[in-house]
Design goal:
With 396 residues, the chain is of the alpha/beta class. 34% of the residues lie in helices and 18% in strands. Helix 4 (133-144) links the parallel strand 5 (120-124) and strand 6 (149-150).
Length: 396
């Protein structure tokens, strides 16, 4: 897998925010050196946020989020602004673009970005047509608390300074994190148990399986794969027990009962609990599963927007387990894709999927919202381990 093959969810997300006609789309084109975004003199050309995966020298694989102007008007404009606000949850670094107009609405957006802990690069664009940038410079420095960069997307001036500013703000763990961090060592034999049932996409593996395999190969591990029904044969084919077994969470119990005593056991979803989210919070929150009752309310959040099939883990398996242990009348709500309620206080527990389709910032923003509203949050893999009474017996 080359850098250009890096899935969008794993790339640094750079959001472009500003008023209509501040030159956001032109700035993306200047940064990427391509006609990536649609540019027009007509205000409001960008409607829903546009996500463009790119590879930029010095930054590496990234995603630019071209958003609608936050001063958009009318009922349709309000919907566009709402989508722009939602994009903040996915943004690792924000480019806040100021045009020739006096800054006003930007104060509100600076506050939202800071609340979401998103670092900001302030940019004065269209320097080629602004009569005196010094006045604007001073005003922006005052409201942002930092000196803005002066650029002209049209004339391609100041673009390198933006790249340098983005590089300085890259998260410390960018390109350093590993899916199997702390679980495997170089040279380990790792057995992957991957059911290829009705839930598995035809002709391909699901993203966590692909990414985990690549991660293990990068660590020079010996990787062996088997479906659940061939687990016995896979173990028998080895001259010694595998160092680690990584399984689909849905067959945790089956694999645990058959695994050699010396083999560490975890699941793809548990690995992603640490890779994408807050593992400690997920584990602590799982304790709530033992207190749920008929009067409880649970939210199950699925990152994908796929059509659920028979025995879907989020729509059928976990709800069935919850009803068996907490009571048949427990309330279970579902959301998928970017949908996520603002008011979480009504829920006793949130269960997030592995979130392979989300970047880490998106998952952490959800966790932060749950923490602020004092709502426990965990994920599929942790739930399956807890419900099968092996959470204290697996590796993470």
């Amino acid at each position: 897998m080359s850098l250009s093959d890096t899935p969008r969810a794993n790339r640094i997300h750079i959001g472009i925010f500003g008023k209509r006609n501040s030159g956001k789309s032109s700035l993306i084109n200047a940064l990427t050196g391509q006609d990536t975004a649609l540019v027009s003199e007509i205000a409001g050309t960008t409607a829903d946020p546009v996500y463009k995966a790119m590879e930029i020298y010095g930054i590496g694989p990234c995603v630019f989020i071209d958003t609608a102007g936050f001063d958009d008007e009318g009922s349709l404009g309000e919907m566009r602004v709402k989508k722009t606000i939602e994009a903040i949850d996915k943004t690792d670094i924000a480019l806040l673009v100021f045009g020739k107009d006096k800054p006003d609405r930007e104060l509100e957006w600076i506050a939202m970005l800071k609340e979401a802990k998103v670092p900001i690069v302030a940019i004065i664009n269209k320097a080629d047509i602004i009569p005196d940038t010094n006045i604007l410079f001073g005003e922006i420095e005052k409201i942002c608390g930092k000196k803005p960069l002066i650029v002209s997307a049209k004339e391609k001036t100041g673009i390198d300074a933006i790249r340098e500013a983005i590089i300085r703000l890259l998260p410390s763990d960018y390109e350093a994190s590993s899916i199997t961090e702390g679980i495997v060592n170089e040279g380990d034999t790792v057995l992957l148990v991957m059911p290829q049932d009705i839930q598995a996409p035809k002709g391909r593996l699901i993203l966590p399986q692909v990414q985990t395999t690549r991660d293990l190969l990068d660590k020079k591990c010996i990787v062996i794969s088997a479906t659940t029904d061939k687990l016995d044969q896979a173990l028998a084919a080895l001259t010694s027990p595998p160092d680690v077994i990584i399984t689909d969470s849905q067959v945790f119990k089956t694999v645990y009962e058959k695994k050699p005593a010396s083999s560490k056991l975890t699941s793809f979803s548990v690995l992603y609990a640490n890779y994408k989210g807050d593992l400690d919070y997920y584990i602590k929150s799982a304790e709530v599963l033992g207190t749920l009752s008929n009067h409880s309310k649970v939210l199950i959040a699925e990152a994908c927007t796929h059509v659920p099939l028979t025995e879907d883990i989020g729509k059928e398996k976990i709800p069935r387990m919850l009803r068996e242990t907490a009571g048949a009348n427990i309330t279970i709500d579902h959301v998928s894709g970017p949908d996520f309620p603002k008011d979480l206080s009504q829920y006793d527990l949130i269960i997030q999927c592995g979130a392979c389709m989300f970047n880490r910032k998106h998952v952490l923003s959800r966790i932060e919202k749950a923490k602020k509203q004092d709502v426990p949050m965990t994920n599929y893999g942790i739930v399956m381990a807890y419900m099968n009474h092996i959470l204290d017996k697996i590796s993470y």
